[in-house]
Specification:
- The chain has about 100 residues and is mostly helical.
- Helices cover about 55% and strands about 10% of the residues.
- It has a domain of about 70 residues.
- The two termini are about 15 Å apart.
Amino acid sequence: MIYLLDANTYIEAKNSYYSMDFCPAYWSWLDHQFAAGIAGSIDMIGRELKEGNDELAEWVEARKGQFIANDDDATQTAFVQIIEYVMGQNFNPANRDQKRTLG
């Protein structure tokens, strides 16, 4: 997986440029990205989106398998390692707050 989507990715798309009735191709494209292993999301995000009680909640409910469980021991251990690494760096506010691009 290359991209991990947060709740706002779905919410902003639904509420702005890619509403489900205006641009169903976007939502179909997302399905293809998930199926190809290019994009994904975690089950915590899926649960948050289902609380909306709207068409996005229905869309998410129909795609439970696209929201990956992340409460297993291996994932939690990786989270600890990431946090320890970040906290161990000598980041100062000026460097930390700079926007950076990958690549």
